[in-house]
């Protein structure tokens, strides 16, 4: 039996506050809302542009697609007293990344999907994109695993515009004039080629790439631009940056030794 995860009165209050706030600073454009199932468990897989976009994603899902948004939220955010109370009352799922509690959180997300029929939002990239042109990056495989083990549809959602309100890594909030924020939801990602097979690392990587291709395609439709042939890999970029820093340090040391000699 489906479980009511949210407090109805808290949900009503929060949704009105968010709608009122976003009305003043955004001009939303929503495409593909018909692709979001009206009921039943569904994974919403979205790109991540800004720390502001959870509000716009929730707005799109609740007002545009008529589904209550359930997020997996960083435990650090949940430690804020007011946020913790609101999140608990609206059915959000806390997650501690890099710990055994992350597995528990994914299990709770699976229950929300299969038992409660919730719409659960995931950012497969795990963080805001660092691509220089803000295209979706390579992603973690947890969402693909959850989709394959739960059997619920996964709806790819791309959005564009929040970076003009609060760019990642910056504190300057640009509320006015109102910014156009566009959403584009596609039909369920076809993962049939991966179903019924052992969930190996290779299979999960390929399934994840299929999900991210759809999200990237949808964002390209919004932007009317050609996406990069190879998505930005944050892990590889960090390794290359660390190696470059070590080389620079060695070259600096060699230069000092030559001077001293």
UniProtKB/TrEMBL annotation:
Q: Write out the GO MF terms.
A: 1-acylglycerol-3-phosphate O-acyltransferase activity
Any one Gene Ontology biological process term? phosphatidic acid biosynthetic process
Name all Phospholipid/glycerol acyltransferase domain ranges.
Answer: 42-162
- Which controlled-vocabulary keywords does the entry list? Acyltransferase, Transferase
Top-rank lineage group of the source organism = Bacteria
Keyword Acyltransferase listed? The answer is yes
Protein name according to UniProt: 1-acyl-sn-glycerol-3-phosphate acyltransferase
